[in-house]
Amino acid sequence: MPRQTPITVLALGGNAILRRNQEGTFEEQYENVRSTATQIATLVNGGFRIVIVHGNGPQIGATVIRHEMGRTKVPPLPLHVCGAETQGFLGYIIQQCLQDELTKRGTSRAVVTVITQVLVEGNDPAFKHPSKPIGPFYTKEQRDALLRERSDLVIEEDSGRGYRRLIASPDPKAVIEDEVIRVLVDNESVVIACGGGGIPVVRQEDLLQGVEAVIDKDLAAERLATSIHAENLIILTDVEGVYINYGKPNQQLLSKINRNKLEGYVKNGYFARGSMAPKVEAAIRFLQNGGKRAVIASLQELGKAIKGSAGTQITN
Ligand code: ADP
Ligand code: MG
Which CATH class is domain 7-120+175-315? Predict the structure, then answer.
C-alpha cells in the first residue's frame, strides 16, 4: 500500500457559501460553492486527503424562519433538526460541485457527506447564558405569545431591531462519527463533516439526544482534526489572517507565530469573541492535542496557505 498523504481538515467560513452582501438564493450559494470547490479540487488533485467542515449561520437562521413562519401549516421542528437539515442541503451542494470539478479533471475520488453529531455537556455553563442570536425578529407581542408556549426559550431585544432568540453555544467535546470519518478518509474519500459545527447532542445514560444549541464550527473542526489525527487544520475566512490591533491604524498581520506567543495575545484580549477568538482557540487546542500546523487564512489564498506562504501559520 502506498504511503498515505497527511490529512488536512479545512474549516470553511461563511463566505465560502454566502457573501456578506448577498440575499441567500440557491443560485448565489451554488455559485459560491462552485468556486470554492474549484480551489479544493486542486488540493485533492495534488494528493491531499481532505476533510471539509463548513459553517451554517445564515442557512440555519433561514431554516428556522421557514419552520416558524410555516407553523400554521406544518409543525415546526426543533433547532437540532434544523441543523441536520442544513448539513444535508449544504453537504449536497458541496458534494455535487466538488464531484463535478474532480470529474472534469479526470480524478476519481468519492465525495461524501456525513451527518455529524457533536457531543456537548448538559451542564456546560453556556446553557445558562445563551449568546448567539438566531432566526426571525419578533415583536413584543409575538415574543410574549411564544414564551407562553415555550417557557424554555430565551428571547431578547437585539440592538433596536426587534426581539430575537438567543441560543447557547456550548464547547464541543467529541465527534460521535469520528471513527467512520477516519475510515472514509483512509479510503481516499473526500469527506464533508461537522457542518455548522455539528448537531449538538448530549448523552443521557446510553442514549444520545439532540439539544437546542449551536456549536462554533472552528472549535468543532478542532475536535474532528484531533480525533482523526490530522496533521493540518486550515481555517479559511474572509480576512488575510490573524491581526493584532485589528481595525486600528496600527493593525499588524501575524504571519508566522508559535503557540505560546499566540496564547499570550489571547490572554491580553486581542481577539474578538465570536469571530476571531474561536479560530485562534481552535488552532491552539489543535497544536496542544498533537496537531502539527494550524493556519488561519483567506479562502482566496488557500493554495498558498497550504504551502505555508500565506495567512497566519501557527506551529508549536
Ligand atoms: P467565519 O464565517 O469565517 O467564521 P467570522 O465573521 O466568524 O467569519 O470571522 C472572521 C472575521 O473576524 C473577519 O471578517 C474579521 O472582521 C473578524 N476579526 C475580528 N478580530 C480579528 C482579528 N484580530 N484579526 C482578523 N480578523 C478579525
Ligand atoms: Mg465564525
Answer: alpha beta
